[in-house]
Design goal:
Elements (H helix, E strand, L loop, with lengths): L4 H8 L2 H11 L3 H23 L4 H14 L11 H12 L3 H12 L3 H25 L4 H10 L5 H13 L26 H4 L5 H12 L15 E3 L14 H9 L13 E4 L4 E4 L4 E5 L5 E5 L3 H10 L14 E3 L16 H14 L4 E7 L6 H21 L7 E5 L12 H7 L1 E8 L1
């Protein structure tokens, strides 16, 4: 593992790369060389702060992996400057103009050139992280710990931003997506923790990096509009005209062609043969505002976002007749093989769901458990019941009243994909949640 990621990323900008970059951004090579030492730390500080968000390091790890696999490090121009400009606008939000102007002034180059350089440097940074994660077999938590070791290299940048916020009077931002039955709640004031204020400008577009640097564009299909109670944190329109379907999408299509397959909407993700689980792509990050003033950062396609939107949207009502409607699959809840033992990573999503239910105290939910068709029907029914009950128990342990949650196992019934393929079976092994009362 490199001891200083800033030095390694800077080394990627060789003389030929700087020469090409100067042409792309329309600035002298001398100006580019002077600006890069300011641009690269800005990108690193953004990734560090994203990694400190709930679930943020998983996003960074995935982006880094995809950037590395795309070979971005070998071509510092892979980001394409125009798209990078849109990316950084979403990344820095209200800090954008000030940051760009500061770097431009200190480097003696135009602000437009700084925008272009930011767009070029970010994917290279991610690719370097991805290369080391692959070489050293780092999972997301390990990568997060290593990123924290790099924090001292950008401390001055982070503190300067915090000081700027302090000088501006510690303004309190309004909460986005407030509970529909309460007055808008302010974001928690963070005058005693200035670093937290920086988080607000980190999430907005970093996940777009994942699309830019690997050719897997989040916007290659029409993006769903943000539902009530959410704020889209990645808004730049970066849709290429030609992009091959992701391999995971082809896997799902194949999984749903068997005779026992039920109609299934498009599912994005990949099958992990090692764990025999399906790893869902939860989409770009959105921020959910909870009734206690805190927020959750989750994926736009995640279980949490779908559940929150249903509860927050008064136009969506529980169907009292057709009880097969309204089920939402958990996308990060897994069990040990043939057991009702939740894996460690499952607790995080169940915790998020518990937080959401606390924000909607009148809501009642039902947890459904399902298996694939492997084994005996009776055994599968019992296992699914045990798994649904295990998930319910976690929610109760986290403070949700027991009379607000019920559990039922459905065994191998209600398939969402074919049981003839490993991918289909992984999709069928699932836990779902349905709102029974709002």
């Amino acid at each position: 593992m490199a001891q200083n990621v800033l030095e390694e990323v800077s080394a990627c900008f060789t003389a030929p790369a700087v020469s090409q970059a100067s042409v792309v951004v329309g600035e002298s090579e001398a100006g580019v060389r002077k600006a890069l030492p300011k641009v690269v730390p800005l990108v690193l500080s953004s990734l560090i702060k994203l990694s400190e968000q709930v679930g943020g390091i998983d996003v960074v790890w995935l982006m880094a992996r995809d950037a590395h696999e795309a070979g971005t490090r070998a071509d510092v121009l892979a980001a394409q400057a125009p798209r990078g400009q849109e990316l950084m606008k979403a990344l820095l939000t209200d800090h954008y103009s000030g940051r760009i102007a500061s770097v431009a002034s200190e480097s003696g180059i135009r602000t437009e050139a700084v925008e272009g350089l930011l767009g070029l440097a970010a994917p290279v940074m991610l690719s370097v992280l991805g290369e080391h994660a692959a070489t050293d077999h780092l999972d997301a938590p390990a990568l997060g710990r290593w990123l924290q070791s790099q924090r001292s290299s950008v401390t001055g940048l982070l503190l300067a931003d915090a000081a700027t916020k302090a000088r501006n009077g510690h303004g309190i931002e309004p909460t986005v997506g407030a509970h529909p039955h309460t007055a808008p709640l302010p974001m928690q004031e963070e005058t005693d923790h200035p670093d937290r204020r920086l988080r607000q400008w980190l999430l907005p577009a970093l996940v777009i990096f994942a699309a830019i640097i690997v050719g897997y564009w989040l916007g290659r299909t029409p993006r769903p509009a943000p539902g009530p109670g959410t704020t889209a944190l990645a808004t730049a329109s970066l849709v290429p005209t030609t992009t091959a379907p992701a391999p995971a999408s082809r896997d799902v299509a194949a999984a749903a062609t068997g005779p026992d397959a039920a109609p299934v909407t498009a599912i994005s993700g990949r099958y992990d043969a090692g764990t025999e689980n399906y790893i869902y792509d939860t989409g770009r990050p959105v921020r959910l505002a909870l009734v206690d003033g805190s927020t959750l950062t989750v994926g736009a396609n995640s279980t949490e976002n779908k559940l929150y939107n249903f509860l927050a949207d008064a136009t969506q009502q529980v169907d009292p007749v057709n009880r097969t409607k309204g089920w939402i699959n958990f996308d990060r809840v897994y069990f040990d093989a043939r057991k009702a033992t939740l894996t460690d990573e499952s607790t995080a999503q169940l915790g998020n769901v518990a937080s959401i239910l606390k924000s909607f105290p009148t809501a009642h939910v039902k947890i459904g458990g399902y298996t694939d068709s492997t084994g005996y029907f009776k055994d599968n029914l019992r296992l699914s019941e045990q798994r649904a009950t295990a998930a319910m128990a976690v929610l109760v342990d986290m403070g949700i009243a027991a009379n607000r949650v019920e559990a039922k196992g459905y065994g191998q019934k209600h398939n969402v994909a074919s049981n003839e393929t490993p991918v289909g079976r992984a999709l069928n092994r699932r836990i779902s949640v349905r709102v029974t009362q709002k």
